Amino acid sequence: MNSNRNNKNKPRSQRKKRTKRSKPTPKRKQTLTYIRMSECAASYMRALCDPFSSIDPLPCIPDAITLPSYKMRVVTRGVAYVGASGFGAAIADPWSSPWNDNGPNDPPLLLSNASNAWTAATFLPAVTSTDWSQAHSNSLFAFTTLNQPMVNLRLVAGGLRIRYTGTTLNEGGQVAVTRVPSNITMIGNTPLFLENMANTSVAPVSRKGNFVNYYPDALGTLSYNSVTAFSHGGGFGDQYPIGFVFTGTPGNSFYVELVTYFEVIGTTFPQTASQLDTVGYSAVMNAAQSIAPPLGTPAAWYSNVLSRLSGSFIDGVSTVATQLGTAAANTAVHLAIAGGRRATRTLEL
C-alpha cells in the first residue's frame, strides 16, 4: 500500500509504469505417430526392404489370396571374380532358389569366373557358359519334392548383396547395381548397357558392400503356380533380373549372398495363417518402390520406407485434419491403416 501511495505523490514523469505479467507459454505436448497394420503387412514390408535381417514371423503377401501357407526363407551364397579384362558379374534368379539342386538347370546364382575375358561390349552369356560358376540354395527341399501336382508356391520377397573380399591394395573399380524393369533378365545385355540404364545405381567397390532387392512389378508375380510356371516369365529360361556388374583388378573376389522368401501351399506342407490387408499392401508397395536400387544399407532403406509410409498416410488424411481436427485425423489414420478387425502390429516411428 505504501508503495502505491508514494507512487501517486510523485510527478507523472517519475512514476513507475505498471507492467502486466505475461503468462508462460504452455509447452506443446510431444506426440508419437503410430501406424497400425496387419502383422503380415509389417513383415512383408521388412522383407521387401531388408530381406537380410531376421524377420519374425516369416513374411507373407497381404493381398486378397488369404490361403494358409508354408512360409520359408532360403539363402544362396557364392564368390564371384573379376576376369582377365577387368570385368565380372553376379546375377540372380530368385524364383530358382526354393530347391537345393540343379534339377531344371536354372541355378539361382550365376557368378563370373576369373578366367572370363569380358569387356564393356561383351554380352552376358547364357547359363551354360563356362564363364559362370553356379550356386544353389540351402533349401530343405529338392526340385522333385516341389515339382508335384498338389504343390504350388510364390515368391514373397528377396534381395541380393555383394561385398568386396580381395586385398586392400587392389581395392578399386566400381559396381553397377541393377534391377531390370519388368524383371526381365540381365543375360544378353552388355555391361555398358546395364550400367547406363535408368534402373541402375553405380557405386565404388567397397567392403561395406551393396544390395539390390527384388520388387514385384506385375500381378503375375503374386500368383501361386507350380515350380515350372510360377516365375515372372511363366517358366524357366534364364530369368536373372537383379544383379551386379563390376570392374577391378583381375582376380579380385566378391562375396555374394541371395536371400529369398516363399509361400508354399500343398497337402504335405505344414500351414500357418495368412492375412488379408489390401490397404496395408497398397501402402507398402507405394512406399517401397524406387526407380533405381537405393545405395547404402538395407536397414537405412527400411527406415526411409517407414518414413515414406508414415508421410503417405498423414498426407492422405490432411484434409480430414483441417476440417475435423487432430483427434478425428488420428482416428482416420488408425482406421485406414488397420483395414478392419484383424490381428495387428504397432510400428512406432
Give a quick set of tags describing it.
349 residues; alpha+beta; Jelly Rolls; six-stranded antiparallel sheet; four-stranded antiparallel sheet; flat
Describe this structure in words.
It is a single chain. The chain folds into two domains: 32-64 and 278-349, no CATH class; 67-273, Sandwich (Jelly Rolls). Helix content is 22%, strand content 24%. The protein is built from eight helices and twelve strands. The protein has a six-stranded antiparallel beta sheet with strand order 5-4-3-10-7-8. Strands 2-11-6-9 form a four-stranded antiparallel beta sheet. Strands 1-12 form a two-stranded antiparallel sheet.
How much of the residues is beta strand, in percent? 15-25%
Q: Can you count the helices? A: 8
Mean pLDDT: 83
Shape: flat
Quick gist of this model?
This protein has helices at 2-9, 39-49, 143-146, 191-195, 278-288, 298-316, 318-324, 326-338, and strands spanning 34-38, 70-81, 87-92, 109-112, 132-135, 152-164, 174-179, 200-204, 210-213, 242-247, 253-265, 344-348. By secondary structure, it is of the alpha+beta class. It folds into 2 domains: 32-64 and 278-349, no CATH class; 67-273, Sandwich (Jelly Rolls), CATH 2.60.120.
Tell me the layout of helices and strands.
Blueprint: H1 2-9, E1 34-38, H2 39-49, E2 70-81, E3 87-92, E4 109-112, E5 132-135, H3 143-146, E6 152-164, E7 174-179, H4 191-195, E8 200-204, E9 210-213, E10 242-247, E11 253-265, H5 278-288, H6 298-316, H7 318-324, H8 326-338, E12 344-348
Antiparallel strand pairs: 1-12, 2-11, 3-4, 3-10, 4-5, 6-9, 6-11, 7-8, 7-10
